[in-house]
Amino acid sequence: xxxxxxxxxxxxxxxTGCFPSKKILEDVQLxxxxxxxxxSNSQVELNGMVAIPQRGEDVPPISEVFTATTNTSKMARAxxxxxxxxxxxxxxxxxxxxxxxxxxxGIYDLVDTLQRxxxxxxxxxxxIVKGSTKTLLKQQYPLSETPSKYLLQLLDQNMNANIPxxxxxxxxxxxxxKGMDPNLPLIEKQGDRIRVIGTALLKDDKMVGQLKLxxxxxxxxxxxxxxxxxxxxxxKNNQFFTIQNxxxxxxxxxxxxxxxxxxxxxVKVKGRVSEAxxxxxxxxxxxxxxxxxxxxxxxxxTNKIVKKLQKAKVDTIGLGDLARSxxxxxxxxxxxxxxxxxxxxxxxxxxxxxxGITE
Length: 359
Prior knowledge:
11 helices, 2 domains, 13 strands, four-stranded mixed sheet, globular, single chain, nine-stranded mixed sheet
């Protein structure tokens, strides 16, 4: 028993030499956000945001952006180091931003640099920016201590309610996978606020289109079950009401996949009326009319969204991968050729289970 304990202690002693040396936080610059801006077909501007702690209690950190332009992000990072009194560390990087013009040319090489860094986690957020990432990161925002913290909270709560979930792991999974394409949040700086304005649609690593925020909520319904989000519906006589999603479920049915495929997408939504000015929602008969109006509006928009995806030849929903998982001897090449013209029908069923506090 004594010999066994000695072996364990000796093994642990040897292992201590295998761990990398710890870096003291005061001796490094922790990069919490990076932004890539288009400069030319061969050059990219890299903007790295660091939060510099201040002396004193309850004193928020000051954010500083370091900028360099070069052909590769690794070289840009080296050029940024020339301005910094401390070496950069990106192990706590929260988000990577890509200018929309850059995204139209392709972002894989820049993403690949991040995925190859062993210090980074797989939950790193990514987003496409309408405009300059440098301008967005340099702004001080009253809603949060630093731009990176603001972005992290903004994307997290919107992915729970309004837009499909996405991070670097999801992006790479859809980029490398067959029968699916990536999507990323689309954001924009508006004054002293950052706003999620929709979803960027990508073919491989290139941005080829976008959906506005309201349609992003419906795309999310087509892709994943979730329990949040609000959707506005026009009723009659220019009356409007909003329905809050309490739960949703999506199912897919594929027919005749090998020859002449068609797809039926069934979405079931349970919700409550969260706002309905001048509409007596306590009336059971009227609730049925509200359900019917919501179904009609959602069916119309979701089918238009699907047609838009097909026209752009992007499979954001991942129907090709779903068809493959249910079909023996599936032919991806044939599916890709047929995809833009495949009959895809979406049917949304809405059940209003609550009518708010007035009920």
